[in-house]
Amino acid sequence: MTGDFTIHRRWFWYDFLLWSSTKNNQIRVVRIGFACAHVALSAGAKAVIIADLRLTPEGEKMVTENEHVIFEKCDVAKWKDLQNVIDGSITHFGDVPDIYIASAGVFEPPYSNFWDDPEGLDANGYKAVDINVNHPIKLTRLAMRALLGKSKRGVVAIVASIAGYSKQYPAPIYSATKHALVGFTRSLGDADALQGVRVVAICPGIVATPIWTTGTPGSGERFGITDEISITPSEVANALFETVKSAKYPGGTIMEVSKLGTRVIPEWHIAPVGEIDGKMAEGSDIPSDAIQRVLGSILQVTEHERGALLQKAS
Q: Whole-prediction pTM value?
């Protein structure tokens, strides 16, 4: 895609945009999507479509008081719902969105995680994978079809994570899903030239969002997540929009944003974020005491399983 992508008078779609102004465990409960909406509107976006299961009263106020923002009910794990949002854009605004931002994600929630393994054998899949991986992949394909159908260029921005190129023993499903998004985004780099759809990914470090509070209750405390080691959703949104609008970031770009700023992640030989003399820089890693707390709960689960079949046999 040649030239910068002008934000003014563009249509946007953000999923999973619920927000609250309260605080919990020192973490301001604001979603990345809400920050993106503010940036888009400030840049003169013609329309912002919020796709989610429901809105908080504050979110409803935002939609009610701003004629450029509408809400479409959507379960991102249901592909028909994703298509319905695109169809709703045509109904409301007479066109498909230009820019699609897949920001919905969960972090090893109580209902779908590796170590507690709450999903039974009849589930035949992890809900967390449906939300974190299948949803942005399918959204990208639907967005591409919609943009091609209108013979227009567009951008799909996927919110991934630094966990997409690092190991996360306490959160292996989350890490695996973010690895998938990084690989998916890189693989679609050529769509920029071939289909006119630029697919990019933003990889934040630790962000102060509800994923640590209401998303996975207690995880913020267990992992020692505080404002001191977190970046804000606004910082992520600003990095995302710089990546979306600037022609110097082609399709397949993986943009990292952390306490140390932003950098484009190369395909090979990725240097650890903030490493100084072989150690992580202050404010760029989870505290060691928090890691030990998390490991303790994991070991408690696996020790309970150790030898269980032998006991049954006897």
A: 0.84
Beta strands (DSSP E) in the chain are 11-15, 23-24, 27-28, 47-52, 69-73, 99-102, 154-159, 197-204, 254-258, 261-264, 275-276, 279-280
Rounded Cα gap, residues 78 and 20, in angstroms: 25
DSSP 305: H
Instruction: Write down the pLDDT at residue 32.
Output: 79
CA distance 248 to 250: 6
Q: Is the distance from CB of 10 to CB of 99 less than 8 angstroms?
A: yes
Q: In sequence order, what are the residues at sequence separation of 6 or more whose Cβ sits closer than 8 angstroms to the Cβ of residue 99? A: 5, 10, 11, 12, 13, 154, 155, 156, 157, 244
CA-nearest of 23, 42, 46 to 34 is 42
Alpha-carbon span 168 to 64, nearest angstrom: 41
More confident residue, 287 or 106: 106
- Fold of the 11-313 domain: Rossmann fold (3.40.50)
3-state secondary structure of 56: coil
Domain residue ranges in the chain: 11-313
- For the chain, the distance separating the N- and C-terminal CA atoms, rounded to the nearest angstrom, is 67
**Could you report the per-residue pLDDT of 20-45, keeping only the tens digit for each?**
222 332 223 347 777 788 788 888 88
| pLDDT band at residue 212 using 50, 70 and 90 as cut-offs | low
Give the pLDDT of residue 27. 27
